[in-house]
């Protein structure tokens, strides 16, 4: 199976309006910058985006929010994006806020083929509205469903032409699980190498989960909130 595509535009060419996307990264670290820019150029709309965060106003998912291409956000942390806040308060954007551990586990369960699980996180809050609850050993839990996506868009540090991936540090946080939870997994890499160049013991995601891969470029690697000590 040939997995290498020419660029981001080719990789996302068949993503339709109304698709559900998972986008890897943590804050602005390890986000699929090239794929997001390609989606902006493509003009696809009515997207449901599953991501730990919503980017910032002029970068990451903030670019798709600016162009009103996102219909619904499913996220954990959204505090760095003023446009997100404006669209939420005005009713232009559907938002499903999910506790971070629950979000990570829902994605992980999808990749493992487990349809649902119980967690105490969110019990007794608005998160619990409409969800099944059970008591185990005197403690109350919510049932949460596994979270799947039509496409998973990820960025890795290195990948080979067979789709084997190596991530660096924080960039692994959601991406390794998302790779297994998307029907189609698309990966951009900083370094695309040939089979045999990656140490098998260092591979974080085996190529069986990856459907398309390409060499990315022009990475900005922004810092979401720079804090300095005087």
TrEMBL record:
Tagged with keyword Transferase: yes
Highest taxon above the source species: Bacteria
Gene Ontology MF terms: succinyl-CoA:3-oxo-acid CoA-transferase activity
Protein keywords: Transferase
InterPro entries according to UniProt: 3-oxoacid_CoA-transf_A, CoA_trans_fam_I, CoA_transf_BS, NagB/RpiA_transferase-like
PANTHER family reported in the protein's UniProt record: KETOACID-COENZYME A TRANSFERASE (PTHR13707), SUCCINYL-COA:3-KETOACID-COENZYME A TRANSFERASE (PTHR13707:SF23)
Protein name per UniProt: Succinyl-CoA--3-ketoacid-CoA transferase
């Amino acid at each position: 199976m040939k997995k290498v595509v020419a660029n981001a535009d080719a990789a996302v060419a068949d993503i339709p309006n109304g698709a559900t996307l998972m986008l890897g990264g943590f804050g602005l670290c390890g986000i699929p910058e090239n794929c997001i820019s390609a989606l902006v150029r493509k003009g696809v709309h009515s997207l449901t985006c599953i991501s730990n965060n919503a980017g910032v106003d002029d970068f990451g998912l903030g670019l798709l929010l600016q162009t009103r291409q996102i219909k619904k956000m499913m996220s954990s942390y959204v505090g760095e994006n003023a446009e997100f806040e404006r669209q939420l308060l005005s009713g232009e954007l559907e938002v499903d806020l999910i506790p971070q551990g629950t979000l990570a586990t829902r994605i992980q369960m999808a990749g493992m083929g487990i349809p649902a699980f119980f967690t105490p996180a969110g019990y007794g809050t608005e998160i619990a509205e409409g969800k099944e609850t059970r008591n185990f050993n005197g403690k109350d839990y919510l049932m949460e469903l596994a979270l799947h996506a039509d496409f998973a868009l990820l960025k890795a540090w290195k990948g080979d032409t067979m789709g084997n991936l190596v991530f660096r540090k924080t960039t692994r946080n959601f991406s390794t699980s998302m790779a297994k939870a998307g029907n189609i997994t698309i990966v951009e890499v900083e370094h695309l190498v040939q089979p045999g160049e990656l140490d098998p013991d260092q591979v974080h995601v085996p190529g069986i989960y990856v459907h398309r891969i390409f060499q990315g470029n022009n990475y900005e690697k922004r810092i979401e909130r720079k804090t300095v000590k005087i």
